[in-house]
Design goal:
single chain; 172 residues; alpha/beta; four-stranded mixed β-sheet; 8 helices
């Protein structure tokens, strides 16, 4: 099949999926459990964790053949993950239509964590996702990001630890 045929197949695949698919993959109980896990995690460090599950890319991304990483970086900005006091926000992004996982960390944490660690985390998530365990894979990812944030940006006992961003999973 030629490149234009592949382009159309990708377009159809992305338009076929919608937010209901994202919700169904994790389940309402899983979404609530992930939100609570983020809340509890953020009590122990000064970082912010956001989870975003997107069923399919917007048409504008598809027409210009954009990849999941570009969309994740855009959402990192739109969801204001970059706008934390210590520059230590992390976005865990799942693009269902392309089966892609992207972890985008702000410069404060990225300077301390090698890319190989982020890649390994995404690989472990992919294993869980292949088994259909989306909520488990995301929960494990939150736990791993939690450990990194506690190691590099622990909360100071007695000091204010403001929750700078919403904790709920974003479904698109």
């Amino acid at each position: 099949m030629d490149a234009s045929g592949n382009r159309w197949l990708r377009f159809v695949r992305h338009r076929w999926h919608d937010v209901r698919d994202a919700r169904r993959a994790v389940g309402d109980a899983g979404l609530q459990a992930l939100r609570q896990r983020v809340v509890e995690s953020e009590r122990a460090h000064t970082g912010e964790i956001r989870i975003c599950i997107e069923a399919g890319l917007p048409a504008s991304y598809l027409w210009r053949r954009a990849r999941a990483r570009e969309r994740a970086v855009t959402l990192f900005g739109k969801l204001r993950v970059w706008d934390t006091h210590d520059n230590n926000g992390v976005l865990i992004y799942l693009l269902m239509a392309d089966h892609r996982i992207e972890i985008v960390a702000d410069r404060g944490l990225n300077a301390r964590v090698p890319q190989a660690d982020w890649d390994a985390l995404a690989g472990r998530m992919a294993t869980a996702f292949r088994d259909g365990r989306f909520a488990d894979g995301l929960a494990a990812a939150v736990d791993e990001v939690h450990a990194l944030l506690v190691a590099h940006f622990p909360a100071t006992p007695g000091a204010a630890n403001v929750n700078e961003l919403p904790d709920a999973v974003v479904l698109l």
